[in-house]
Amino acid sequence: MYGISQKDKFIDEKDCLSLEDSSGRVKIDIKSKINVGEFVTGIPLAFKGQLNNKEIFVVNDVLYYHINNNNINTQMDIEINTPKENKNLILFISNLRLGTPDELDSGLAPNARSLLVDFIQNNNLNEKFSNISNRIKRVIFVGASIYVNQKIEELDKGSFIKADEYKKEVNNIIENYAKLDKYLNLIANCVQVDLMNNLEGNDGVYFPQNQNGQFLFLENIRNINAKTLNLVENPYIFDIYSYKLKSKKYFLGTSGENINCIMQYTSITDPLVAMEKTLEWGHLAPLAPDTFRIYPFSDKDPLLLDKIPDIYFTSGKHDFNKKMIEISSDNKKTVTLLELPDFSSNFKGILYNVDDDSVNEINFLQNLSFNKK
């Protein structure tokens, strides 16, 4: 999956940390008041400390890039819970992976995806779930929405002997996009849908990503009754205005590859900690372009954070995890970190209530269930 290796970690106990600027480089003492294993190349920061008798720098404190939290133009402004309606929920679905092989054998995934559509359309639901589905304002699909065989990069760069196998996998991707088009068309008839792009299986694609091409979703383009399928960028940045709170909330989300890359090159094992670090550092992918492919920008770094989000979400690999943190910018700000559950493996989604910040996990496996987190 995206990158040069499937290895979990590229670190060693012999690794050292150095501070570098235009004047030179100095090695950091491992006995410093920082966790050396939680830093990566490319972080804009300053260390406070002194050299010891071996000309190695001992760190006493660290200063990160200052995020001024000014208002910025987001990709989309969304109004929630207008005076004429009571819709204050956002449904997050991560890694739908439509078209995964052998799913029909188990029957679980098709059933879960059908339940997801029924839930959004409010089909044959009991009163409890009907009241919930009626309050969904928007559905956001994060991460890999179609299945892509991870061997496709290897097949693409292989010999002509593998050409037929590569062609077969490309045709599977095309078919899976057609399935996704029809599937999203069912949902977009009822509610606004945001489909994020992602890097999984996209060889040669760089981060940040533009939105998917409209030609992949002809069913939705032709559907004049659709509530709208919004093809959005990765990272995805948007504001939501709540009439109840009379204020905006700032959302930031990624497909998760930047977080996975940070974890590969640090001692960090918890994605939520890696997410917190990106906010502290003021940069979504400081390792780029060394170990993370990024499109070259000459005038401005688009991954340098201009504002601290209220909600920061990313596509996870396993179960749902949540964490509340405080980040210092102009003032201390509380941020909700959401590592979204992998729908393709556990068939769960996340409901976020914009008016009261509550988060609930909903399980679409065989029978709907609802758990407050």
User: What helical percentage do the residues reach?
Assistant: 10-25%
Helix and strand pattern: EEEEEEHHHEHHEHEEEHHEEEHEEE
Shape: globular
Largest sheet: 7 strands, mixed
Strand order of the largest sheet: 9-8-7-6-15-16-17
Low-pLDDT segments: 1-5
Q: How many helices in DSSP terms?
A: 9
N-to-C CA distance: 30 Å
Report the structural category.
alpha/beta
Number of beta-strand segments: 17
Q: What's the alpha carbon Rg, rounded to whole Å?
A: 22 Å
List keywords for this structure.
single chain; 373 residues; 6-stranded mixed β-sheet; 9 helices; 17 strands; disordered N terminus
In short:
Helix content is 23%, strand content 27%.
Description:
This protein is α/β, with parallel strands linked by helices. The chain contains nine helices and 17 strands. The strands form four sheets. Strands 9-8-7-6-15-16-17 form a seven-stranded mixed β-sheet. A six-stranded mixed β-sheet has the order 5-10-11-12-14-13. Strands 1-2 form a two-stranded antiparallel ribbon. Helix 7 (257-264) packs across helix 8.
